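Q: Trace token order:
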Amino acid sequence: MRRDRPEPATTVRQAPVDPPRPAPPVEPSESLPQVTRPTWALLALLGGATLTLLALAVFTKIEVVVTAHGSLVSGTGATPILAQRAGPVRKLTVVAGDRVERGQSIAQIAVADLEARVDKTAKQLSNLHTQDEQARQTATRLHQQTLSALGAKRQLLAKRVQLTRKRVASLEHRARQTQILTTEGAESQSSLLAARENVAIAQERLLTLQQEIADVDIRIAEREYDFVHSQLTRNLEIRAAELESIEAESLTSTGHARAPDAGRVESVLVREDQVVAAGELLALIVREGEKPSVVAFVADDDAAFLREGLHATLEFSAFPLGEFGKASAHVTRVGTGAATAAEVAKVTSHGFTPGGALVRVELEIDDDAAWKKMRPHVRPGSGLKARLETRQRRLIALALNVWNRWLTE
């Protein structure tokens, strides 16, 4: 059996190894920062805050508010008070903000010609009353005296008529006796004729007396008529003078500008001693109980998010927010097209400068505590800002929108 021979051992020579060199010293400024436990806590706190803010941005919604500029307007517009006659303003009886009753004088315009006419007719009427009183007393006295005299005369004539009737009856009886005697031949025919002639004369006298009584009655009736007629004539003259005086006073009343309804004076547009023309505007009055509304204008880009019933808050430029607060309102109408420049200027004449196309928005004021506090002090035309809460958006969407705008710019 063959055995393998062991191979002879070989000697391996190793290269000499240099001893390790010491590392160069590290400068303190180049040393790595040591993360301590408080640092890790701070980083964890910042990370948690970042995640919290991110969560809030994702889930939190905020109101998107659109600002509209406008002013307060009355429901049907202020009622104009016009001058009915031309002339200088003698007196103003109200100032802006005063409450007035129906028919109350607002301004008095001097009308010299009508006032002179009123004085003249008043004097004429006074003279007519005085003359009428004097004439009435004199006429009444004379009338009574005349009636008394005519009545006495009539009584005398009536007595004479009675006596004459008796005489006629006596003469007729004698004539009948004479006729009988003449038939018997005791009296002549001439005696009968004489007796009949006496009867005729007595009857004629009776008729004359009766005629005189009728004449007296006619005179009494005429006197009564003249007396009544004279009274009626004087009464008609007085009545005509009274009508002329009333007409003059009514024309003079046209110099008084009066309130057609109860309400509040919005503005007085004239001053005392100012000469005005007929039909010129003197003042404006807002009727009592009329609820004012708001007309405002928003940018055309924001109008798409407006709708009826949308809530809004009103800030009046004349009132400090800290004292009066904000009034509440809601949208009643949104315009369908861009408003004209004249329309915008009429409502926002208090200094608003539009920057683009605007849309008209009408709002109704809510009758809350803030409005009740403001109401006595505001007037149509008061400038305001309406803050309209159009919709809700997530905070992160708003941030991204701002970021996109910044990038596009």
About this structure: DSSP finds eight helices and 14 strands in the chain.
